Amino acid sequence: MLSVIVRQAYREQARRSGVDNGLWASAWSKWQSINSRFYRGTQSAEDLEWDMHDLWYLYYEASMNTPEESPALDRLALQIVQAREQGLLNREGGGGLVQAKTTDGHVWSDLPFLVPDMTKHWLDGHAGLSSAQRLSLSKFLANLASAGIGRDDGLCAIALSTFREALETPRPLGTSADQQQGEDASRPEAELSVAACLPSVNSWLSWAGLKIIQLSEKEKSWSASEPGPLFRIANPDPGTPVTGFCTVRWIFWLTRLESLAKSFRDSGEDALSAVATGLMDNMLILVEATGGRLKKDLETAYLSGAVQHRPIAEDMSSPK
User: Is the terminal CB of the chain with fewer CB neighbours within 10 Å at N or C?
Assistant: First the structure.
């Protein structure tokens, strides 16, 4: 019950104060409290786990209620990097060294529960967030993932889910107004339009694009990461089962964005057509900066005509 009260307080503080919500300071204090209670031996194993869950919920609320362009959002991500760099939390005990261990790993070296908690918060809540909250949370998670936060690159599974829902799942195109949605906790994920989903895709590309390329070339997979219906229709027999990032999937995302750019343009949504085109440019710019298998597969896709879009040469310097 105490945890519920704590989380309600975090939520109220974040929504009341916006960028000045001060939750970064609350997070700092929470760190020190966890350390102090462990050193004093006054924290049970159950309390330690609740404290970790509450800490990540604090970052969830703080990040999505901090404007995407604010340096304060980067500060929140840096704090978690600093938390990991504390290393293994331990103390001297009567029988030797006592380690702060949970059912999901060691504090702080493993950042226990960060990946499962953030994944659950995203999957359960992203549809009901406002457009601004969704974008801020995406940037925060992408920054963490690009820094290697989360065991086994687990946060990148959120990126894969984001791409799947935006580009591999049938949903209405939507309009530019869908990128200005308000918060609505009752909004189901199925009601999100492509237009509403694309900014999160772009955020992951902008802040963790090279990490995603690395995982695509490694064919990194997770058990719950099968492709969406549109990918399966376009690739009924991809050769090997696709259960995660791969170059075939990356190239499908490009072709899907080509189709979306045309569909938006045909429906009179020129601004959204430009968004889809910009996403393609970002993907191609990132690949151009690498020399791995994805670049070779992309060259093959160009030769076969599977991918036609090429960014303007003078725009090849950096992602948009």
Answer: N
